[in-house]
Amino acid sequence: MALLISWRPSASNISSFPFIVKKTSPKSAKMGFFNNNISCSVTSTMAGQSQRKLPILLFDVMDTIVRDPFYNEIPAFFRMPMKELLECKHPTTWIEFEKGLITEGECARRFFKDGRPFDLEGLKNCMQRAYSYIEGVEGLLNSLKENGYEIHAFTNYPIWYQMIEDKLKLSNYLSWTFCSCIFGKRKPDPDFYLEVVKHLNVEASSCIFVDDRMRNVEAAVEVGLNGLQFKNADLLRKDLSLLGVNISTNENPDLAECSS
After folding, report:
1. How far, CA to CA in Å, does 193 sit from each of 6, 32, 63, 84, 112?
2. Cross-referenced SUPFAM superfamilies, in alphabetical order (predicted)?
């Protein structure tokens, strides 16, 4: 189980979701790694939050909720192996596109170092065809929604996130609130995490962040959020349950089937 959490107790307004905390070694304590079970509670000192169900859940999207076409379909589209693609593409163009600093057209013009043209609409169609829910995740999101949790996307992605929404309708389960192309910041920039917490108007310790990339999870823990590394839907269910998140078992069987 890849479990990272940060516990910062307060004296007032104790909320009711318990954590399983583990005793740390001095080296791992800074990053929030825990061993040996100890029960505790997480607190929220924000005024007026008593009616808001905590924790708030923040989900990365690519390779956490949705399969990322970058590793297979995109190299195939360009008819080159991944190693060659990485060598040929411009090192910062996609990052700038994800941050909303350049347009789609400029991204296409600068995608390759040598400026070679390519079929932009063909690439977008290839990506949209490849988008699919990771096995078991849609059912998990539905369970969290049915149990009344507030769920937000917290993702590094350009305006093409709308293509994901058009195909998979993630908005049935979460809000596309924190996209890098809207905020002009990318994970693991600490300022992005802090802006998320400020926007939500809760303490960082009242949020659980889920991401497949450990460095993004570690960055979340550094600023006080509770972090979980995504491996698969079954392990995430167990990790969330250890953090006291109520996940019902009365899932829509159609969602379970579509997610598998």
Report:
1. 14, 16, 19, 33, 31
2. HAD-like
Q: Quickly count helices (H) and strands (E) in the chain.
A: 13, 8
Task: Residue 232: count other Cβ atoms within 10 Å of its Cβ.
Answer: 12
Q: What is the pLDDT of residues 148-173, one digit of tens each?
A: 999 999 999 999 999 999 999 999 99
Q: How far is CA 126 from CA 69, 86, 184, in A?
A: 8, 18, 26
Name the strand (E) or helix (H) holding 232.
none
219 has a pLDDT exceeding 70: yes
The arithmetic mean of pLDDT across residues 96-107, rounded, is 98
Strands 226-229 and 3-4: antiparallel
Q: Find where tokens 């029960």 sit.
A: 39
**Distance between CA atoms of residues 125 and 106, nearest Å:** 18
